[in-house]
């Protein structure tokens, strides 16, 4: 801020750095102001992206969409801008716009892993499971591994009642991130579907340990599932344990 006051004329890098600092401090209104000043000097992809992010944080979604649309007219070959805009559309449940935008990002850069992943998530959300599976497997074949990719792929297989494939993917997800409550919970679901109630209870108990403690309702639901498993195990002759 002091540097801005001392500057005799507007300086693009100074304004951009100031915007980034304010954004990091979560002073999004001040960051927005600096971004808009910087754009008057130089129309930069980085500034437009930061400006859109600041607007989203301020819940100015309509303004953010307009910023993305304007920036894409300036930079029509930016796969990264298309990706970020596509994710925003998906988050706002504008699914058709998200689909079109993410596909445009991939067309510009077929190695855009982020766009491929977001498109896979969107297909999964729309219950277009085969398309989602193909995309997740494509990402894995490119050498990109993460717990979320394995977890999402597993739930696609679970949706198709392919429990062994789902279990295999979830175990890989657990290897990548043993503390993922989502993975542990889903492992419980698959084990329960395979009538392996002891294993299901163990993984659900582990999920409780790593679940966000601000969500007590989730803990209660998991504890209900664990109780149901323990009742089955107690009344069983041991063949399912």
UniProtKB/TrEMBL annotation:
Family the UniProt entry places it in: Belongs to the BBS4 family.
Gene Ontology CC entries for this record: ciliary basal body
UniProt TPR repeat ranges: 147-180
Gene3D superfamilies in the record: Tetratricopeptide repeat domain (1.25.40.10)
PROSITE patterns: TPR (PS50005)
Superkingdom as given in the UniProt entry: Eukaryota
Record flagged with keyword Repeat: yes
InterPro entries in the record: TPR-like_helical_dom_sf, TPR_rpt
One Pfam family of this chain: TPR_8
Keywords: Repeat, TPR repeat
Name listed for the protein in its UniProt record: Uncharacterized protein
Biological process (GO), any one: cilium assembly
């Amino acid at each position: 801020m002091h540097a801005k006051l001392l500057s005799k004329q507007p300086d693009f890098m100074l304004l951009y750095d100031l915007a980034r600092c304010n954004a990091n401090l979560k002073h999004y209104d001040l960051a927005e102001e600096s971004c808009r000043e910087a754009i008057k000097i130089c129309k930069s992809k980085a500034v437009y992206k930061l400006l859109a992010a600041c607007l989203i944080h301020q819940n100015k979604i309509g303004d953010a969409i307009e910023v993305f649309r304007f920036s894409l007219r300036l930079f029509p070959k930016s796969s990264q801008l298309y990706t970020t805009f596509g994710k925003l559309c998906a988050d706002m449940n504008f699914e058709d716009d998200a689909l079109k935008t993410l596909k445009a990002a991939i067309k510009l850069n077929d190695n855009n892993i982020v766009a491929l992943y977001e498109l896979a998530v969107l297909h999964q959300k729309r219950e277009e499971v085969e398309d989602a599976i193909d995309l997740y497997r494509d990402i894995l074949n490119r050498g990109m591994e993460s717990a979320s990719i394995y977890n999402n792929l597993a739930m696609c297989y679970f949706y198709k009642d392919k429990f062994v494939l789902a279990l295999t993917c979830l175990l890989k997800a657990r290897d990548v991130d043993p503390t993922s409550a989502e993975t542990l919970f889903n492992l419980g679901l698959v084990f329960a579907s395979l009538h392996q109630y002891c294993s299901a209870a163990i993984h659900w108990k582990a999920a409780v340990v790593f679940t966000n403690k601000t969500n007590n309702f989730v803990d209660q639901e998991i504890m209900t599932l664990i109780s149901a498993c323990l009742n089955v195990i107690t009344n069983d002759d041991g063949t399912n344990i």
